[in-house]
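INFO batch 0412 | record 1 of 1 | parsing
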Amino acid sequence: MKKQFTYCLFIVLSFIISGSVYAQCIGDITTVHINSKAVGRDVTFTDPLTNSSKTSYAGTLNSTMDGNYMPVYCVNLHRTVSLPDNNYTDTCNYVDPKIQYILNNYYPYKRGYAGQLPDSTDEAGSIQMAIWHYSDNVNANTITSNTVKNRTNQIIADADANGTATEPVITFTIEASSDPDAFFVRTVDVNDVGIAVSNISLSISQGSLSTNTTSTNSSGISPDITVTGTSTGIITATANMIYSQGRIVHSRTSNKQSLTIAYPVYGMMKVTADWGALPVELSSFNGVSNGTSISLFWSTATEQNNSHFSVERKSVNSEVWNTVGRVEGHGTTSISHEYTFTDRNLTSGRYNYRLKQTDFNGNFEYYKLNTDVEVGTPTEFDLSQNYPNPFNPSTKINYSMPSDGLVSIKVFDNLGRQVATLVNETKTAGFHSVEFNGANLNSGLYYYKMEVKGITKVMKMTLVK
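INFO prediction complete | emitting tokens
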């Protein structure tokens, strides 16, 4: 960590390093028992590996972590799981972004949401099939149950449209302090909100620490812990912490299914950080605006074990960072690489950006753009083509306002009947966006019309279920 603060003095001024080194966890510290089937049903579909019919239980499994109840979904279709099985453990890994999105927004973590099937066994079965679509390339259209097939396709469409950049919440981390000789511990809940945790055990493989036990306050931040007597070493922190949905547990034997946590649970967790490590040497980081888009450009001089960059954005008037994209890294390389990412359909305003670089072991580091990037005011009233199009069940419609005004956006079916009012209020000058959800409508052609200050614009869109 200390080396990182020295390093940032030599980087060109197009970016700064935030000075945070984050933890890699270590498995085998927590006890996981997979007990029985929970909520789900048998589903028949075509196995993409054998191209033959397969019937499998699809839904959640009952399990416990350190004695605490923990429902899980499967993320390996072509392995078996024995019930019960007491030979499972935490892997410190997380599911892919679209599966993470499903776990964040569907049963059992969320309940009573739009589109949820009245029979929870059908809903859980559909969610499992959608997960297998992403983990094992299952074609949802081969599902023999129309109820499960249609619902699975709805969930897949939602994840495709909204889940590309979904990142897991890392609840327990070791971070570098503004003091280059110190670090602190951060603890958060599954919404990334700070929580107080007591009796966190600390150690370092070389040198010594100012304390071997710490606690975090209600903001999730511990006091600084000073490192002495070393410039390298592995810092370890252990505590009873919350495991967020999306984290993977698997059997200690390689022939069993891997499972993902579907509902947050407490258990013993161990995380580590490499004092002095720097996984990526960034040589530039710039941002340029163009209409409603902002393009980011960065380059690396070297990379060590680099899995990917997550692009995070916040408004200058906000303290909340949102993940808006992901760009794959180049692993380990001493060759310079150029990267780019375009953040589209932004409203007028000034934005901050940072890169969250993550290695294959789960360690991550922030690189922050040192200047704001501004999206200006449009020059004309305009209505854009919805995206995605065709869509199922929701789509986004962008429109622009060069000046303040009362604007109306309504949706009509192919017979001219109004089916929805999306906007009917005064909007400020700038770029705006509204979502249309056609979950309760039939497939077909629809029209959306914007009226503002005597100007009318009409566009077509297609709902396909």
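INFO post-check: Residues 120-136 form the longest helix (17 residues).
INFO record closed
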